[in-house]
Amino acid sequence: MIISSYANFFSLLIFSLFLIPAIVLGILGKKIKWYGIIISIPILCLLFGLTSKQMIQFAVFIVCETILIFSYYFFKKRATSEFVYYLTFALSMLPIFLLKMCVHVERFSFLGFLGVSYISFRIWQLIIEIHDEHIKTLSLPEMLYFITFFPTISCGPIDRFQRFKDDLEASIKPEEYLNDYLIFGIKKIFIGILYKFALAMLINTFVIEKLPAHAESFLGTLVYMYAYTFYLFFDFAGYSNLAIGTSYILGIKTPENFNKPFLARNMKEFWDRWHISLSKWFGDYLFSRFVLNTLRNGTFKSKKVASRCGYMLTMIVMGLWHGTYLFYVVYGIYQGLMLVITDVYLKSKVYRRFKKSKYYNVISRVICFQFIAIGMLLFSGYLFNF
User: Which of 91, 113, 181, 327 is the most interior residue, by most CB within 10 Å?
Assistant: First the structure.
């Protein structure tokens, strides 16, 4: 038997049954850590299928990456070598690179498994944090639980290891668990059900599926653009709420992924509100490091230029991470340009005058939403589906 992660009510029922002992442990004031680690095994088997090709690929991937992480971890304790660090990082990226390329070769189309992209983010984070000496101790059970944490394995949110580890070790009193974990978690699950199985499903069924499979008219494209924008939000935010709610019940305060993104007044603010864990990951581990390193080595003398080049690089990489199709590349370039234009705008006299306007919030949000929707249209591939 194989279940899909939050794809239907049957999977929610299975997850709920596994969560009952965790709830009992939490109410009794006992640590949920080891129970969560133990039940990961049967749940992962249900998600992948015990003898499926996905499970075999997943197992091989996890074993190889675990060996790589701990090899670098023990090496780092004895010596420092930038070459070894970059080699380790490159090797950790090799599987996801090959999988992204294999989608274009029919004979290898079976390669790939659930959550490989989000697991990879956690693995890369561990390697970077070990290199930066932010991770002093690393245990095998905690590391495996972190990178394969089943509530968020498919689409995030992307957690940070030290924060995750702190939650694992925290002592939670019964009253605190009841109010701050269980009730909050159940609330998030119900919001997720509403978003994903009601609002997203209604938009998809009564709007998107009624439209042609590719652009045939300007009006049809416009309807699809707005419908898909809302559909993607409710579907993805619904999934995120389900994942967060499940995590809380297991004693893990997985970070939020959305914060009213369509109320953003500019594209910079949008990326602070949309897929927050992903944008923060790219911001911390790619954008900030790119800007800092290029300023240090003299590639750029102006922080402004370095930042704007950083926006383009970060968003193009983010587009390619979603896939190597042309529309993802175009989407990444578009988002990069939007951030550069926004940066220029926010430093202009026009912005300083406009932000004092009585209607600044309303007008800026309406205009920004149009740019958001155009980005979602590009992301959907609708214009490229010939």
Answer: 181
